[in-house]
Design brief:
By secondary structure, this protein is of the alpha/beta class. The protein contains 14 helices and six strands. The protein has helices spanning 11-14, 17-36, 57-63, 80-95, 111-116, 143-161, 188-199, 203-216, 221-236, 241-250, 255-267, 271-284, 287-304, 309-322, and strands at residues 4-5, 49-51, 70-75, 101-106, 124-129, 132-138.
């Protein structure tokens, strides 16, 4: 995908006199308060690039943008252009040493934020300055263009909002990563309950048990896969299979029909057919229909497992039709 320059298209709104004046006053007040307390502490270099989800957005993006421009990198694991762009942005965040902070948001795990920003394709890069958002660029842009855009962003932050960045302690030692113990004990009973419910065809009960695990341990891979499986089996339960397949054959542009048929394909063991059907549905459609097909495809990836080569191939096919 060729980079689509969206650089600073929101500057006119950001430069509104009242908003800029208020933001500058708040920034000056924050600096004065920090000075009275002995100055704002320098942050370690590791604080210049952070992963953020919906729960931490207000704290890590909106609040932080009152002291330093926040650049947001919207990305996904399956997005090849993202893998080109993200390392460049991370390197520049360290090179600029506190003049901006880079936030990385996985769109697959944070659909609400993706919708709020109106993301149509990734990689997409936005900035938030003094609580106000503006688009920067879309696609794996050349480094020279990225530097020019960042310099312009920083200038806007300084001149119109009084944001001079944050101090970075370049001597700080990298924090040692704490060993994360394997989850034991607390989830065993819930996971066993879920398996028993699946065996009894109680798919709602199984899904609820898996959700209870994920409420406490959102990264639990067994619960993620189990929930996707339980929801899939619950959807196909009671389906008139012949009618579903006939509807899908007669209406190739009907996303609802294709999604239902893909569920049946997967349950029947026709993994490539299920993935191919949904990739084609994404290619044919736009807007909400495209999102529905794409999200169902991501759910079916969870059922099969991210390490399966069929998932890897389908992710590449999805990227090709999206970009």
């Amino acid at each position: 995908m060729q980079p689509r320059n969206m650089s600073m298209s929101g500057v006119v709104d950001l430069a509104a006199v009242k908003a800029a004046g208020e933001a500058k006053v708040k920034a000056e007040q924050a600096r004065a308060e920090a000075a009275r307390n002995g100055g704002a502490p320098a942050v370690p270099p590791s604080s210049l690039v952070i992963d953020v989800d919906e729960a931490g957005f207000e704290r890590d993006v909106l609040q932080r943008s009152a002291e330093v421009p926040v650049v947001i990198d919207f990305w996904a694991e399956w997005c090849e252009p993202c893998k080109q762009l993200s390392p460049v942005l991370e390197r520049l965040a360290h090179e600029y040493s506190g003049r901006f902070v880079l936030v990385k948001i996985d769109v697959d795990a944070n659909q609400m934020l993706m919708q709020q920003f109106g993301i149509q394709g990734i990689p997409a890069v936005f900035a938030v300055v003094a609580g106000q958002a503006l688009p920067l660029f879309q696609g794996a842009a050349p480094e020279a263009q990225i530097r020019q855009t960042l310099d312009q962003l920083i200038q806007v932050g300084e001149e119109r909002f009084g944001l001079t960045g944050i101090a970075v302690d370049t001597e700080a030692e990298p924090a040692e990563e704490a060993e994360v113990p394997e989850p034991v004990g607390p989830y065993d009973a819930l996971l066993e309950t879920a398996v028993q419910a699946l065996d009894a065809n109680d798919f709602d009960g199984a899904a609820e048990a898996y959700r209870n695990v994920l409420a406490e341990d959102p990264a639990n891979t067994e619960a993620k896969a189990g929930l996707a499986q339980a929801e899939l089996l619950g959807r196909v339960q009671g389906m008139d299979q012949q009618r579903v397949r006939d509807d899908a054959a007669r209406n190739p542009g009907d996303v609802e029909a294709q999604v239902a048929a893909a569920d049946l394909d997967l349950v029947g063991g026709h993994v490539e057919d299920a993935f191919g059907r949904l990739v084609e549905a994404v290619r044919r459609t736009a807007g909400e229909d495209r999102d529905a097909a794409r999200l169902r495809l991501l759910e079916l990836f969870e059922v099969v497992g991210g390490d399966d080569p069929r998932v890897t191939a389908a992710r590449s096919a999805l990227a090709r039709v999206l970009f």
